[in-house]
Design goal:
5% strand; elongated; BlaI_family; Arc Repressor Mutant, subunit A; 2 domains; 127 residues; transcription; mainly alpha; DNA binding; WH-like_DNA-bd_sf
Length: 127
């Protein structure tokens, strides 16, 4: 949420932060939403044009789909939050020169609960 800085100026959210907020609103529902509905779901009073621009940017990136079912201008996420996070993790591993070392560092940073879940997934073999 945009806040007021130490000198009374309004702090701007990054484009990535705004995109994440829009995606969070879309993930919170089962149906496509219009830009006005997304705007209503975001805290911080974003202008309608800003929301529309963010939705278009997300559409251009393939992260949201436009609904073709009669609700003109309605959007829905192309992937759920877990799928998008997993994709980002794979992309991060692919960028580095040593993905195994990166994975080792990642696993060392897991909470006890996350480690238990990872061990259970690997032991289950149902990946």
């Amino acid at each position: 949420m945009a806040g007021t800085g130490s000198r009374g100026r309004v702090e701007r959210r990054s484009a990535g932060a705004l995109e994440n907020e829009v995606l969070a609103v879309l993930w919170a529902t089962e149906r496509p939403l219009t830009p006005a509905e997304v705007q209503a779901g975001i805290d911080g009073g974003l202008a309608y044009n800003t929301v529309h621009t963010i939705l278009k940017r997300l559409y251009d990136k393939g992260l949201v789909l436009r609904d073709a079912d009669g609700r003109r201008g309605a959007y829905r996420p192309a992937k759920n939050a877990a799928q998008l996070t997993a994709e980002a993790m794979h992309e991060a591993l692919d960028r580095g020169p040593d993905p195994i070392a990166a994975l080792q560092h990642f696993v060392r940073g897991l909470s006890a609960e996350e480690e238990r879940a990872l061990r259970a997934l690997l032991a289950d073999g149902d990946l």
